[in-house]
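User: Sequence in, structure out. Go.
Assistant: Echoing your sequence, followed by the structure tokens.
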Amino acid sequence: TTIGCSMTLMGLNFGPDDKVITTNHEHNAIKSPLQVLQERQGLKVETRAFPATRTLSGMGSKALLDTLFPNIPELRGARALCVSHVYPTTGVRLPLALLRHKADELDIPYLVVDGAQAMGMVDLSKNGDSLENCYVYACPGHKWLNGPPSTGVLYIRNADIQPPEFYPVISQRMSKYTDCHEGSGCSFPI
């Protein structure tokens, strides 16, 4: 999940005038790459606060999304909405169809979802939680899927959309980032 979110966020080529919307309950899989982009490139990160527990416990999904991401000028036109499908901090599940609707309402093209607590527990084939609502959905293979450690799934809605720098954290294109070329005496293969 962390590598999938990082690859995606680091690969979308955000500029200093771009803005990303997230919440104060996100895992480091989302927070960390956004912080790096904020520090290095000046990406504007708008972090929205979850309501207090007493208020949250009485809210439905739509009311929560309207509270977290109201249709206001400060949020409209962001490049990405980065959220979790299910929050381990609160147990809240944000239906993917409602998230997609909210992103469309705010004219946000990329919906990036951390699915670490959902894959294997939530039916992702149903309309309300269909993966097709997301631009990217990242999740681990070892949690609810009971797969081996260090496995995961990175769903990209349109395989033809390939951001120019969409490389894994440990990339087979390492030579792009080094001076190594044939005959240079590098100690690792290219």
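User: And one key feature?
Assistant: The beta strands are 19-23, 44-48, 80-84, 110-114, 136-140, 152-156.
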